[in-house]
Specification:
This protein is mainly alpha-helical. The protein is built from six helices and five strands; from the N terminus they run ααββαβααββα. The chain has helices at 2-41, 43-46, 121-138, 168-181, 186-195, 212-223; strands spanning 50-52, 58-61, 165-166, 197-198, 209-211. The chain is elongated.
Length: 225
């Protein structure tokens, strides 16, 4: 009987020591080591890939797209469609899961695709209307956008609905409109796009792209608005 009790005590003691050691290693040492390495070697990525404006204020993350819309006429009207603020470069459409409808006390951004088939009438209408809007919004007195020049990313959302990038082709279509709305030379805005165009990763992966938040942050600095 005594041997059974002492064995049980030893087992409990060994279990408690193992719990303490693993708690220190996995709960303290490992997180501190990972955090330290991340901050030392990947400081920007570890802190959320933040983008700051000229004053040092964080305006967002380079990994998550933002919308650039005019304020609603009635903030309480959930059915009112948002209208783009055309003085800014516009991102890809975000027609995924939409806004939060579960708890409307909070304004949440939900990620997801439409999950509609290519021949779905609603999706066809969305794409058709989006193309017409791109042509109308970006045509100016000196520049006309042709429907065949509208790239796919200008009228379709990404799988997540939060893509922060657009193609250089879509950015260039917007140059004349942005220049006109901000009273800038087209050459200035075109240079801005070229300066913020990233090539393929490692030279062969993906496609050239423009980060819309970075581009609009630079545009804001250029206009001083």
């Amino acid at each position: 009987m005594n041997n059974s009790v002492s064995s049980t005590v030893r087992l409990i003691g060994a279990g408690l020591r193992a719990l303490l050691v693993l708690t220190v290693i996995c709960g303290v040492v490992y997180p501190l080591a990972v955090t330290g390495i991340a901050q030392a070697l990947f400081n920007d990525e570890a802190n959320g890939s933040e983008i700051k404006d000229g004053s040092g204020r964080v305006v967002g993350s380079s990994l998550i797209g933002q919308t650039y819309n005019l304020p609603k006429r009635d903030p309480e009207d959930a059915e009112e469609a948002a209208e783009p603020d055309l003085k800014w470069f516009q991102p890809r459409p975000s027609n995924g899961l939409g806004g939060n409808s579960v708890n409307t006390q909070y304004s949440l951004v939900l990620s997801g695709a439409t999950n509609k088939a290519a021949d779905n009438p609603d999706l066809v209408k969305l794409v058709t209307d989006a193309k017409a809007a791109v042509v109308s919004d970006n045509s100016t007195a000196t520049y006309e956008v042709r429907p065949e020049d509208v790239p796919a990313d200008a009228i379709t959302s990404s799988g997540s609905g939060l893509d922060p990038h657009i193609s250089p082709e879509y950015a260039r279509i917007q140059v004349h409109r942005v220049a006109e709305r901000n009273h800038l030379d087209v050459e200035q805005v075109d240079k801005l796009v070229k300066d913020h165009t990233s090539g393929r990763t490692l030279g062969f992966m993906g496609e050239p792209r423009v980060n819309v938040l970075e581009l609009n942050t630079a545009l804001k600095a250029l206009t001083g608005s």
